[in-house]
Amino acid sequence: MHGAALLLLVLGLQQAEGRCVFNRTQEYCLCYRLTQETAGSIIQCLAASAVEFRGGDLEKYADFPVKDLDDSTIDMLGSLEIRKIIFSDLLVPEVLLARVLRFFSYTRVREMVFESCSFVGRSSWADMAGRALPIVSLRFHNVTAATLAGREQDLSPLSRWLGALQELSVTASRLAVLPCAVGRALRALRSLDLAHNSLGDDSLAPAFCPEAFTQLRVLSLRHNSLTSYSGVCGSVRLLGELQHLDLSHNALTAGTPSSPCQWPTTLRVFNLSGAGLDHVLAPLPPSLEVLDLSSNRLHAVDISLRSLQALFLSRNALPAAPSIRGCPALHTLHLDNNLIAELPRDEALLLEHLRDVAVAGNPFNCTCAGAGAVQALAAVGCLRQGWPQGYVCHAPARYQGALLRDVPTSVLQCNPAAVLAPVCTGLALLCVAVAAGLLWARGARPRWLCGPGQREDACSGAERL
């Protein structure tokens, strides 16, 4: 049997009849419920960069004998272009996975994904002792497995591989505990995604213990069970390389800090969207460049961050645009879907210096001043998202439902007195000049041209040469 087919059959990917289908355009190959009889179709996957094995119960193969590969098979595995392996909808005995994972050391696979899989049983992983794998990205989504608590000794043979892993994602898997030893083993990890799990306030401090995740740059904790803002701050303070933190969709409150909170000074991107906030929690990380506070219940925002470049406040309850004077580096401001009726002229002038402003979906009062300020932003090119269709007038009645873009805001229409007054004054002066010219033409000097003390009859004729 072909070496690649042998390896894939060793993984036990056979239950019902199926075959592999290769999409040449996407360089993606799907193998569905392979059997020994249909395993030959695996050859279609040899040119793929991503291969997915879907469907099956591997538990009956837990005692499947796994032998070492011969040199020709090892050479063949090293020549494959496969960079990503996906396992989905599978029941996986951990003991079988532990025995065959070592064969991936002969491949060039960089990313491994387990989606909607169930891991059963328990293994010592002894066959992986001292082995390095080319896999640098490991993702689990919607998986069930035994808790990691108390398994430090079982996982120790994986330390060489885990120490080189750069990306780890465990999402929607009911994860409630992450032992300190796991973080200490993941010495090179740059990105950790733990979204849609059951992590609570008490789970974080043990997970981010001293010497854990020392190289971590990106951390996502969105959609968990976190409630204490100060508690999260205290738990992640030891992550000295952290740059991006996502706490969105947690029901956060200020909490009761036992000591003043100190966020990592390296933190640049902070996501607090959908956290149920009715005010901005403090303190904010001092060196932020991007702050997302969208989809909350904020009624007012007063932020002073000199390094802040992008501020997202969409879908809140803001009745007015916040002042941006305390954020001199700001270039992006999103205020769409709030309760803003007008932009004050002085604030609008400041917004004109930004590169990206979004104010769509607000109940605009399309007075001359209100519509004119927004139209001025559009004229300088900083209104991008939603312009012009998302800018609709709610008042006054004559413009209700009209696009703000179409509201007339010329000086003649908005302030006719400012135009007519100088025009009328000019016409009056012109009339006076014409009248004077007519009098001169008739040989009479207007009385108001006579000098002081001069009799009217003395200046009543035209002077002759």
UniProtKB/TrEMBL annotation:
It holds the Pfam family LRR_6. It is a lipid-anchor; GPI-anchor. The chain crosses the membrane at residues 419-441. Coiled coil: none annotated. GO terms for biological process: cellular response to lipopolysaccharide; inflammatory response; innate immune response; positive regulation of cytokine production; toll-like receptor 4 signaling pathway. Residues 1-18 form the signal peptide. InterPro entries: Leu-rich_rpt (IPR001611), Leu-rich_rpt_typical-subtyp (IPR003591), LRR_dom_sf (IPR032675), Monocyte_diff_Ag_CD14 (IPR016337). This is Monocyte differentiation antigen CD14.
